[in-house]
Design brief:
One of its GO terms (molecular function) is isomerase activity. This is Thiol-disulfide isomerase. InterPro entries: Thioredoxin-like_sf, Thioredoxin_domain. Keywords: Isomerase. Helix content is about 55%, strand content about 15%. It contains 6 helices and 4 strands, in the order ααβααβαββα. It is globular. Helix 4 packs parallel to helix 6. Strands 2-1-3-4 form a 4-stranded mixed beta sheet, sandwiched between helices. About 10% of the residues have low confidence. The chain is α+β, with helices and mostly antiparallel strands. The protein has a single domain, classed as Glutaredoxin, CATH 3.40.30. It starts with a helix and ends with a helix.
């Protein structure tokens, strides 16, 4: 019985540690590489503007180059609805905590540019009006202002 209780406590503790792991990892990476963090809240299988954002901006080369050039660390907090697209319990819990902290109104899509410490620099509610190149250039400009 004692072994079961200890095992349950260890599992709960490890889930709690992992809950903020992606954001903490992104902060560490951003600090090491002098990057910003781009956090995107999406509903990948039900939110039409979210799907368009990923197709028209995030999946484009201009955006991918931001990561390659160490301008941003990209983090997606997805909230799929279809059973076949469900995420692990750990990722669901982490995404819920990220939403509590950065998206309490539950806006989708909602994109946030953070500094390496997690401070909000800019937000985009809904689908950004600009194309991938303009969106990427705006992020580059903001990054240069942070790191003159």
């Amino acid at each position: 019985m004692k072994t079961i209780i200890v095992t349950i406590m260890l599992v709960m503790f490890s889930v709690g540690i992992h809950a903020q792991n992606r954001l903490e990892t992104a902060k560490k990476e951003a600090a090491e590489n002098n990057e910003l963090i781009l956090l995107n809240f999406s509903g990948s299988d039900w939110c039409i503007p979210c799907i368009k954002l990923h197709k028209n901006i995030i999946e484009k080369e201009d955006f991918k180059k931001l990561q390659e050039d160490h301008i941003i660390t990209y983090l997606n907090a997805d909230f799929p609805r279809n059973k076949k697209n469900q995420l692990s319990t750990e990722i669901k819990n982490e995404n819920a905590k990220l939403a509590d902290q950065y998206n309490p109104k539950g806006i989708f899509p909602y994109t946030i540019l953070l500094n390496k410490d997690g401070k909000v620099l800019k937000t985009w509610e809904g689908l950004p009006a600009e194309n991938a190149l303009a969106f990427s250039n705006e992020i580059r400009d903001l990054q240069q202002k942070q790191n003159p």
